[in-house]
Amino acid sequence: MDRRNRWWTWTALALLAGTALIPLGTPLFPTQDGPVHLYYVDVLRGVLTHSAPYAQHFRIKRLLTPYALEYYCLLALEFVFSPGWSEKLLVVGYIFAFGMGFRYLVESVAEKGSPWTLAGIPFCLHMLLYMGFLNYSLALTLLLFQCGFWIRHAGRLTARRVALLAGGLALMLLTHPVPAAVFLAFAGMHTVTVIAYDLAAGEPWLKSLRVRWPALALSVAMGIASLAWVSRFMQRAPIGAFDRSYASMWGWFDAVATELQLYPVTAFNRLQYRAGAMFLIAFAGIVLGIGLWRNRRNIRPAATALLVSSGACFLLYCLVPERMNANFYFAERFPILWVLFLLAGTAALPLSRRWNVAAGALGASIAVILLLQQKAYVAEIGSQIARTQQVPAPEPGSVGLIAAASREVPHSLQFNPYMWSAVHYFRQSRAILANDPWMNSPLLMLEPVRPGRWSYLDPGDANAALTSGTVSGSDIGDLDFIVQMGPPNFEIDGYMHRHGWSDTVRPNGLLRIYRRP
Prior knowledge:
Layout: H1 3-24, H2 34-48, H3 54-57, E1 58-60, H4 68-77, H5 83-107, H6 127-130, H7 134-153, H8 159-173, H9 177-200, H10 205-230, H11 246-250, H12 252-260, H13 271-294, H14 301-319, H15 335-347, H16 353-387, E2 399-404, H17 423-427, E3 432-433, E4 446-448, H18 459-467, E5 481-485, H19 490-498, E6 502-505, E7 511-515
Parallel strand pairs: 2-3, 2-5
Antiparallel strand pairs: 1-4, 5-7, 6-7
Helix pairs in contact: 1-5, 1-16, 2-4, 4-5, 5-7, 7-8, 7-9, 8-10, 9-10, 9-14, 13-15, 13-16, 14-15
């Protein structure tokens, strides 16, 4: 490694360490779905050990699913650490894996210690992580390593390398299927690109195919095996508005503009937060244009495969439905990918050193600015949520429901950290969450033993069910308490008081507990 490039490596490690301080420095790392996943780890442990009260209310559908890795990692960490710290440490592990994975990918197509490594760090804490999609985020890091390994070794496959690729893919399939599918598409694209470059260079097509057939055969075999695995977890869902693409709902101009402004990538949507990341992407686009023009006859197949993959992921956000397999935010899985592939593809071009140094300096500067802003946001939200946990805990085994008046995302955020934050209240004493969110999905390992009227409802749907006039006082007799999150909801408040339920209000107004008479 060039001595000058060592500074970029050390700078990258320092920035990743600074990023890790964000989850470590808050009482509760605020994510939208994270509290439910922590609760389900408690449930999984209780069911596996046949301990009350969870074993009486839940059971295991499958021990291995495409979302299994996060739960098993948290189970292992909780042998030593508390659940809150286990989640933080898993996020910290993701942060360093993201940085090292992007570095590995960049160094597969550029010099060792390339300054472009730093350009990916501002996108480490992306929107999907704050959504609580930790399985997806972990699979994203595996995708970076897998793509880098494929670029390095696809032309010289050995039994050991095939085993490593297959093992990495198997781990991805136990984490999240979308990054696994993207890797398989990239592997196929890279192989086809290499063959096309061979033919353009005058190589006989039979000779090129004979050399490249192991990579082509491996990508096809992995694709067939992956499809067979994922098909076991597919389910039909009623067609609705959420099965339309953003291009069809908003029009192409708005869908593309949303992506270019990085709304699906950044967790905080204020312009002063997004501006730095947008400027970095614009810089990469300018450098890409210059590099393609000056080196149009000297572009490596790996650069082409990365850039084509970036463009494909950009288009997929516009074209795929918002909901897939009854799971929402499907389209949002792709924007972070086009950003990372774009940066890696630009780094693969034969650029002058001043452009590379500028990319590293710009990436480091923007990363520092974003980290300072995120630290302030996360500390405020995490402390606010932590204060809501000061309510006396419910009785162990008691059954409660979470209801909320609105599903609207708070101003300036791209995620709702308050939506499921009341689940921490349930975890304090092993109370039973009647909502059972997402347990009707085959991707989850757990399901309720006896699904009830409240099963699978998010807080907004639970609130609508309570206040619709179709639920009588006797219908809520199976509940011991109800948690109302968010601003005061006079509709549900009046409903509960009419049926004689008493309430406890927190001073910050985020949490109200209604208890049975």
